[in-house]
Write a structure and sequence with these properties.
- The protein has 150 residues and is mainly α.
- The chain is built from six helices and two strands, in the order H-H-H-H-E-E-H-H.
- It has a two-stranded antiparallel ribbon with strand order 1-2.
- A hairpin with a 7-residue loop joins strand 1 and strand 2.
- Helix 2 packs across helix 4 and helix 3 crosses helix 4.
- The longest helix has 25 residues.
- The protein is globular.
């Protein structure tokens, strides 16, 4: 796949730039808002993957996040120390260790999502017309699909 800017029409390239800026600004603003017991980005990602995808190995998490197995090992150790992740032997292959999210970890993920969602909901409720809310509602699945395509 040719990834040079010239491989797409100019209007698509402009839209890509606008989305990069606006989504990037949204992410930065959300990260600037304090959430109790903040986790690092790799910790948040690993915990969320375990919550959504179920038990898996550290190497599979590392591959999914495109980080080294050593980095993921440190991330998992920190999560395990906080009681958010548990390790156990794979019942089918005793050499493998399977990671799963604990109930404390699951509650933490859901609480964090709730806090961030509340921030966004208050901003939407206070500053957007019903028509604008409809447009954002229609755009949300498209943004998710765009993320999956990257």
């Amino acid at each position: 796949m040719d990834e040079s800017p010239r491989s797409v029409p100019d209007e698509v390239f402009e839209l890509a730039g606008q989305l990069r800026v606006s989504v990037g600004m949204l992410i930065r603003k959300l990260r600037q808002k304090p959430v109790r017991g903040e986790l690092t980005l790799p910790e948040t990602s690993a915990l969320s993957r375990l919550d959504r995808g179920g038990p898996t190995t550290s190497s599979e998490l590392a591959r999914a996040d495109r980080i080294s197995p050593q980095s993921m090992g440190a991330t998992i150790a920190a999560l395990e120390e906080r009681g958010l992740v548990a390790r156990e032997k794979d019942t089918e292959d005793g050499r493998r260790v399977v990671l799963s999210i604990t109930e404390t970890g699951r509650q933490d993920v859901h609480d964090r999502r709730g806090e961030r969602t509340e921030l966004i909901a208050r901003a939407l409720d206070g500053g957007f017309t019903p028509s604008e809310l409809d447009r954002l509602r229609a755009a949300a699945p498209l943004l998710e699909r765009l993320a999956e395509e990257l």
